[in-house]
Structure formats: C-alpha cells, structure tokens
Amino acid sequence: METLDKDLRSIQEVRNLIKKAKEAQARLATMSQEQIDAIVKAIADAGYQNREKLAKMANEETGFGRWQDKIIKNAFASKQVYDSIKDMKTVGVLKEDKAHKVMEVAVPVGVIAGLIPSTNPTSTVIYKALIALKAGNSIVFSPHPNALKCILETVKIISEAAVQAGCPEGAIAVMSVPTIQGTDQLMKHDDVALILATGGTAMVKAAYSSGTPAIGVGPGNGPAFIEKSANIPLAVKRIMDSKTFDNGTICASEQSVVVEACSKDAVIAEFKKQGAYFLSAEEAAQLGKFIMRANGTMNPQIVGRSVEHIAKLANLDIPAGTRVLIAEENRVGRNVPYSREKLAPILAFYTEDSWEAACERCIEILNGEGAGHTMVIHSENEEIVREFALKKPVSRLLVNTPGTLGGIGATTAIAPALTLGCGAVGGSSTSDNISPLNLLNIRRVAYGLREMEDLAEKPAAQTGAASIDLGDKEQLINLIVKRILAEM
Question: Which residue of the set 150, 167, 251, 359 is catalytic?
Fold first, then answer.
C-alpha cells in the first residue's frame, strides 16, 4: 500500500476539512440569533471549565510561560470575551434607519482560516472560535507544530460542546498534520473567505500575500513612558506585573521603559525594590547575544522563559528572586537587541532630558519595530497624555495600566481580544481589537429618496439668480446699484 508523504497528507486533510466546514457554515447561515448564541455559550463554558487542564497542557508542551497565568488567559478568552459579545447582534437585521430608509443586514464571511501561535495556543483557539461562530462563520485552525497536542485537545473540547448545543459538525476543525504546504493550501483555498492570522511576522506576511482577505497582526514592541507626574511605585508595579505575566508572551507587553532624567534615580530604586535586576554593561552585552538570532529574528530559546532559565542560558549570576532583567540603553535599531521585541522578562531602559524627548524616543522605538501596535504612558498630566495620543504611531495608547492586560482589554474598556490589529502603519488591515463585527460583512438595503432630476443643477434663470463674474468688481457694483434703485 502506497503511503503519502506528510505534506501531501496535510494538503488532503485541509481540503477535506474545508469541504466539511463549508457545508457546516451553510447551515450556520440559516440559524437564528438564539441558536448561534447557544452554540457560542457552550464553547465559552467548555473553555472555561477546562481552563486549568488546557493551561497545564500548553505549558508542558511548549515550555513557554507559566501555567498559572495561562489559566487566567484561558479564563479571559472564554469568560471575558464571551461576556463582551453575548448580547452583540450578529444575525439578520443589525440596524434600521427609518428616517433615511437604510437597513443593515449581517452577512457571515464564510469559512475562516485561523492561524494559531505557540505562545498563546489554547486561549487563542477558544477566542477565535467564539468570535468566528458568533458571526455565523465556520473556522479551520492551522496549529503551530510545537503546540499541536494542546491545540488538538482544545478544539476537541470546544467542538464537542458546540455540537451538543446544535452546531453542525465540522464548523470547528483543526489540522492534525500541520505542515507549511498544508497551511499554504488552507490560506489559498478558494472556499476560504478570510484568514485570521496570529503569529510571527513571516506567517502574517504569508497570510497577506496569499490572495485571500486577511486580518493579521504585526510584532509588538511597546515602550512604557513613566512621566514625572506619575505615581512611580504604582507605575513600576504595573510594568512588573505585565512583563512577568506568563513570562512576557503577550505581544502587548512592555518592551522598554523610558523615563525623564529628573526621575531616573527614583524609578530605578523602585524597580530594584520590586525585584528587577539592572545588568552591568558587560552583563547586558553578554545577554544581548541571546536575544536575537543572526537573521534578526527573536531567539526562541528566550521566548516565554523564566528569568532563571535566561540567566543560566547567558551564564549570568543574578540575585535570587529576580523578576525582570533590565539593561540601560541609548540606541535604537535592528542590530540593537534591547530595542527590539522581547517576549520574555527582559526590558530596555532609556533616559531622556524631557517629556518631549521621551516622546520622540518612543516614536523612534516604535518606528524601528512595533509601529501600529501598543504603547503605555504612566502620567497624571492629561495634557501630556493628549500630546502622546496625537503623535504616537500606535493603535492602542494605554494610560496607567499594565500593557499586557490593558492591550487585550482585560483591564481597560476596549474590546477583549487576543488578536490586536496594527492598522496600516503596522501592515494590518485594521487597528481594531478583533471582534465578531470584524468577521462579518454588512449588506445595506437603501431606498431611493431622490430622482435623477433632483440631482441636476437648475439654470440661473430658474433660480432667479444673476450669473456674474465675482472677479469683475465694476459689474458687481452696477448690479447692486440697479437693485437698490429698483427697490426705492
């Protein structure tokens, strides 16, 4: 019996999954809002009930992060995302403007390809399934090979719960043989309507280059500016909480800290008090070799790893209990590793003479990497916050909150999401936190209000207005005089 190569098996599996997903989506498109909502609730409940099991599986399989924090992420992806969308109208007539005679109707996009990263595997599956099904779509997942087992288990759990709630089988599917060729087939298949891409830069670029409409996110590299009016102990606490959450695997986490010279000593003292270790110049150079690979991409050996693991990797002797490693820096660039995205408990530390200089430094960091994503400012000065809001090339400017949890909408009032759009400046098709409303089209039913004749300009004779050249002062004066004499 002939055995197919792995890439051929992967391609055939994708074709089979898409076929079933398309059939399932056709049935979803006929369901009522109540039926869709029942399916979505079942997915959320199943994800929440298995949050600890899936967190431990993800941590054990990938080695990234902390399973305790992954429980929180799974709970966020299921419960908090569900609470934000449960009352959202996504089926049938969304809005009707009787005065202007325009009606808006929700139309599912169809089959969605969901690309899943290894950094946040189980939580991203739960989240993407929720928003896809809420909008009446089916979804086929392409899992990162390094997180295959936990992703397969997550899909099994939520798809079984969805089917029991009335969901057509095949509406939530996943590749069990992930290959580059299979994922390429998924993204380029004619029956896939949209790609929802979360992952590395190469994956997102491939999604946008596939010829299929895509929503993808670029890298995060958010600086955190501690302005002199800030509550320094609280600002430092928020940054430390954020950067250590799941060992920094969320792309909205802070990557550098920017301070004014007048508050530098106080900020450094507070960071040390809360468990940060400032590297010497020699230690910073030693660790810097492990942050980026020769090709300029982040070294996977540090991603989501603990401070202890990273220190051992770089042969550093650090104090027990260290939570975050910090290196002072004054440069920005592709070859300056501390100025780049570091999905690990490592921060760069910049000092500037004024808030204006800090503003420019943050822009420089973002333009180097991370434009369109997220940054944080800690300040009690509303005018400075406003200046940052007007100038920063980001889609999310977070104020007095941890970057990680603020960016995804856990500690802020923006849409709870695990896919964060970066806008055009970041190479993304949207700047939104992605919700079901990004995964449906809107059909507008518009009644005529005017006839063609109403659009034509009436001749001057019909309007009673004289046609004059306003540039001819003498003609204008004569006309005014004639009108005055006629009224006497």
Answer: 251
